[in-house]
Amino acid sequence: MMNRLKAAAKRAFDLHRPARELLILPDDTFLVSYPKSGNTWTRLLIANLLSPDEPADFRSINQMVPDPFADSKRHFARMPRPRVIKSHLVFDPRYPRVIYMVRDPRDVVISEYHYQRKTRRIDDQYPLDEYVPRFLQGETYPENGSWGENVASWLLAREGDPRFHLVRYENLLSDTIGELSGIAVFLGISAAPERLSEVVRLSSVDRMRTLEQQQSNASSLMKGSRKDLPFVRAAKSGGWRSELPESLVAKIEAAWGPMMRHLDYELVFPQSPGRTGSPDFVLGKISK
Amino acid sequence: MSYRINALIRYALGIDIAGRSLAVRPNDTFLVSYPRSGNTWTRFLIANLLYPNDAVSFANIERLIPDCEAHSNLYLTRLRSPRVIKSHEYFDHRYCRVIYIVRDPRDVALSYYNFQRKYRQIPDEYPLTQYVSDFVAGRINSADWGTWAENVGTWLVREGQPGFLLLRYEDMMADPTRALAKVAHFFNLEPAADLLATAVERSSAPRLRELERSQGSKWVTTRGKREDIPFIGTAASGGWKSRLPAQSVAEIESAWGHLMKNLGYELTVSSVAEAEVR
Question: What is residue A143's DSSP assignment?
Fold first, then answer.
């Protein structure tokens, strides 16, 4: 009986956070991505879009685009509708509308590696060439699947569906206003071009760095983590070209080459076959 | 607070449903499919293969190959590894070893229609064409498992990788022994031919019908459901050709034609077939 109670208490410990038990409403929109793919930046953009009177910060993004694994059940119940909700989960058919962010996995792995150092999950000496295979196996964020599983599950189920809006992080960087305007349309928010520029300015990487310095203990993303490493890091694309050894680039492309090509990520090794015999019909479906 | 206490009590008493909250073990094998795709038949085939000395029936199938959507976390925690677990979940990346069964969605729709009548989830006079629209749009009772295409499509993430075996119900029907041999191989078994034949024999549709008649009122899945509609359905493929209205066939094919074609299901509506060729 004691063991039972112990196991039950363990399960019950975090239950004030809704996690997967979140009551989903038909007008909810989920902002979904594999971790380290620009989710926080997009949350800030959306929070600023939704809050014309007051600039958003790391505190308010948790209010306005909350995370079922970090914010309280009570908060979700009291939010004004329609809600925008953050998620890193693999495909979930209950999500009515989805903005899915995708980022070049070669950049994701580097960003992730630094974030795991910051959050003390690995130490500074942890070899990158041991980290990459774990990344490929989906062991670095066991709750979210591997990058390939996370991205492919969403694309296979929903790509081309009017309830699904795909955003490439790289496009968001190169044409922030254009991509933000697409997101605004998907969310049914009308915003004049001047307003969009204002939102982009309030969500700039410089402003995010300043906010990080002021509020590093306010956000569950960085609370208790190392202060010598930043949460808002490069905010660039293509860093892998200088930071990721070619042998590791080859490993990533060997695992997910066809999917990367489908998402317009140019391959260094264009002959990458994809993981053993990735069948044409999966890719056929993806490239539909 | 009451939410916490409630969850704690439900877990401790073993009255929750594991489902998605199941604690997955690395050596679990999952038998996954969309509902009405031959999962029960395959469960019996595998149980008869793995436990040739047990008389496999509806009375012990939940112990041999439990249904994670019918049992509590506590019940499943107590089963010894390696477990074989039945599931209808859409893609769950935690499942390491998966046998996935896919069936022609036009037959699935027909079978599901009868099933939901049996379960009193829709009335007898519910129009079939309306039902198919609900089925395609994901407006049926078990929408939490995704639509047919969402369930099948997301699992294809694993196709071609070790630890994933894709079986077509239609191929299993055509040659069950061969299909079961593949399953045996997946479990690293090399069973003698007569063991395979016996397992197939013991899992045949007439035998499952007989077991349903004698044990259906006790099995967790059929207990308290209408007895005039059987759980073990036609156990046939292609029934849709004569029984599914043309407009419903067209609706399914235009929604999921691409995926169906890639799984080897021939399309009848030429406009869909042509659009897919380009």
Answer: G
ipTM of the complex, rounded to two decimals: 0.84
Cβ-contact A212, A230 below 8 angstroms: yes
Phi–psi pair at A167, nearest 5 degrees? -125, 125
CA distance readout (Å), A29 to A87, A150, A170, A173, B265:
10, 18, 22, 22, 34
User: What is the tally of structural domains in chain A?
Assistant: 1
Query: pTM (2 decimals)?
Result: 0.88
For A252: left if phi > 0, alpha if psi spans -120 to 50, otherwise beta; the answer is alpha
Nearest to A120 by CA among A222, A209, A215, A37: A222
Domain around A111: 9-286
| Cβ-proximal residues to B192 (8 Å cutoff; 6+ apart), any chain | none
Q: Position B20: which residue type?
A: R
CA distance A165 to chain B (A): 17
Q: B277 and chain A: CB distance < 8 Å anywhere?
A: no
Per-residue pLDDT tens digits for A158-202: 988 999 999 999 999 999 999 999 999 999 999 999 999 999 998
List CB contacts (< 8 A) between A16 and chain B: 3-4
Q: Which residues of A touch B4 (CB under 8 A)?
A: 12, 15-16
Q: CB B20 to CB A281 under 8 A?
A: no
Asked if residue A4 belongs to a domain, the reply is no
Tally C-beta pairs within 8 A across A and B: 105
What are the tens digits of pLDDT across the range B166-190?
999 999 999 999 999 999 999 999 9
Option in B143, B144, B262 nearest A281 (CB): B262
Closest C-alpha to B96, from B165, B179, B21: B165
Are A156 and B90 within 8 A, CB to CB?
no
Q: Tell me whether residues B7 and A278 touch, CB distance under 8 A.
A: no
Residue A90 lies in a domain: yes
Residue A145 lies in a domain: yes
Residues recorded for chain B? 278
What chain B holds in terms of domains, given with CATH numbers, is: 2-235 (3.40.50.300)
Residue A137 belongs to domain with CATH number: 3.40.50.300
Closest to A8 (Cβ–Cβ): which among B8, B93, B151? Answer: B8
Residue A3 resides in a domain: no
